[in-house]
Specification:
mainly alpha, 4 helices, flat, Small_multidrug_res, Guanidinium exporter, transport
């Protein structure tokens, strides 16, 4: 269950990082409120998952899921640059997330 909660927290992190861009430096009220709410709920879920997953692993996976998702959504939604180097770096992050899950030992 902790891993499912952590994955949801990672997805919420993608949402709030996208909200950072949409809030335009916290100058737009609705995107700002949504961004802050998503960030708080995401962090709360990470704290729940860290009860049974080592905190370093939980944080790294949460940040990694958020980073990978943000890069992908940035390309799709905001037409950010696409390159082999960017995808190679994303692949390294994914490899790290998988590695941490494999060595963690919790189900």
């Amino acid at each position: 269950m902790a891993w499912l909660i952590l994955c949801i927290a990672g997805l919420l992190e993608i949402g709030w990082t996208m909200g950072l861009k949409l809030s335009d430096g916290f100058t737009k009220l609705v995107p700002t409120i949504l961004t802050l709410a998503l960030a708080m709920f995401s962090i709360y879920l990470v704290s729940l998952s860290a009860r049974s997953i080592p905190v370093g692993t939980a944080y790294a996976v949460w940040a990694g899921v958020g980073a990978v998702g943000t890069v992908i959504f940035g390309i799709i939604i905001f037409a950010e640059p696409v390159s082999i180097a960017r995808f190679a770096c994303v692949g390294l992050i994914v490899a790290g997330i998988i590695g941490l899950k494999l060595v963690d030992g919790s189900a």
